[in-house]
Amino acid sequence: MQVWKFGGTSVGKPERMHSIRQLITSTDSRKIVVLSALSGTTNALLSIGESAKANQDAEAVEKIKALRDHYDTFIQELYSTEAGLAQGKEIVEKEFSFIRSLVNIKPFTSKQDKELVAEGELLSTQMFEAYLAEQGENSILLPALEFMRIDAEGEPELAVIEERLTTILGQHPERQLIITQGFICRNPRGEVDNLKRGGSDYTASLIGGAIRAEEIQIWTDIDGMHNNDPRIVKRTFPIRQLTFEEAAELAYFGAKILHPSTITPAKMRGVPVRLKNTMQPDAPGTLIATSSTDREIKAIAAKDNITAIYVHSTRMLNAYGFLRRVFEIFEKYKTPVDMVTTSEVSVSVTIDNSEHLDAITAELREIADLEEHDRDQTIVCIVGNFSADKEGVAIKVLDALKNIPLRMISYGASEHNLSILIHSSLKEQALNALNERLFYYEDAMKDIFTAP
Ligand code: ADP
Ligand code: ASP
Ligand code: MG
Description:
EC number: 2.7.2.4
CATH architecture of the largest domain: 3-Layer(aba) Sandwich
GO cellular component, one term: cytosol
InterPro entries: AceGlu_kinase-like_sf, ACT-like_dom_sf, ACT_Aspartokinase, Asp/Glu/Uridylate_kinase, Asp_kin_monofn, Asp_kinase, AsparK_Bifunc_asparK/hSer_DH, Aspartate_kinase_CS
Structural class: alpha/beta
Oligomer: single chain
Bound molecules: adenosine-5'-diphosphate, aspartic acid, magnesium ion
Strand order of the largest sheet: 3-4-2-1-7-9-10-8
Enzyme class: transferase
Radius of gyration: 24 Å
CATH topology of the largest domain: Carbamate kinase
Protein name: Aspartokinase
């Protein structure tokens, strides 16, 4: 069995839904098909929620109307029969009347907000399943809210997901295509919740791991993982193979093509992940598996909204136990630390969740001196196979960045990652400089030396 996930742009137009039907029926394997919301819908729903929260009811109603218009037009082109269209209209009417009722609830809390944002995936999957039924496909819609569970910390409950999914799948052995929602889940209170932005990738991997799928395919709008962020850097190219570790680092450190946690469940169960392009299905994409080709430097990613905290203590740092006390403070506030560097008298750390920054810095001041922290920082992460017996990665990176002030450098923690911290305003310059130096420099040199 395989798990195929289609993202927002892949389901964002009626003709794309038609292509997806062709794709998922073009091979015989039984599939679980995970869908995101139509592109733009999650943002629109969040914006409706903002208006509702601010008691801007007229504004919320306007936004709901604009979104509804989009769906009314969409279904006209999605279905080709009267019966299909009638089914589509019923789905849109039902979900939009629920959306309207949600924004009338006062006060509009995060519970309503989460129910509201879940509507994107609830709409796309019901509309698609009705389309498959119209076309006579052997499919069924399996509600993610019946099996996708997170715990009080927001972490998926793998054992629960596996047990429920196995039971439900066993009830429909004759179905070839099983459609379900990405992103949405229930929390321990039984309320509707989600796996955070971009979470449909994570859903696919959690399902793939739970059922020990043969393969997980993430279908999106680009031909696999590129060597650098194509939104910022012009000359990028797809990487054909990555190890689980390399892909996990890239996803965690900002490669938007994958939700940061996507690789974990797949890696745990050894299920390969293939990234494919819905607009160009014959392109090879990227295969993520246990091993990969031995190219030294694979790719670069960047993660924004980082805060750097500088802890300084001549008195305490070399005393054993000091670092433990520092990290216990971050643990207490459930704030993960991304980068760490140390010297004899100082330790610097970065965090990307600054919700508890004031409380953390107040407690740190009880055990050390703090320098003013820096916001608006970016971690640039270079990923590849940097085993210690190979030379030259660091020198190339530093050479590329010689004109950029570096706040922190972290190298040697794993064989796959070299990370640097810079001010976010320098990100574009840094990514482009690294791109030229790490991926095109040798070619440029070759051209110079072979030139007549
Ligand atoms: P989906 O809606 O299918 O989940 P996303 O927009 O979340 O798609 O992810 C795909 C996008 O990720 C691409 O269009 C691309 O702009 C962006 N992206 C950022 N970094 C990378 C990278 N290293 N390789 C490929 N795509 C990347
Ligand atoms: N629809 C959700 C989002 O836009 C989840 C996803 O697309 O993966 O974040
Ligand atoms: Mg995505």
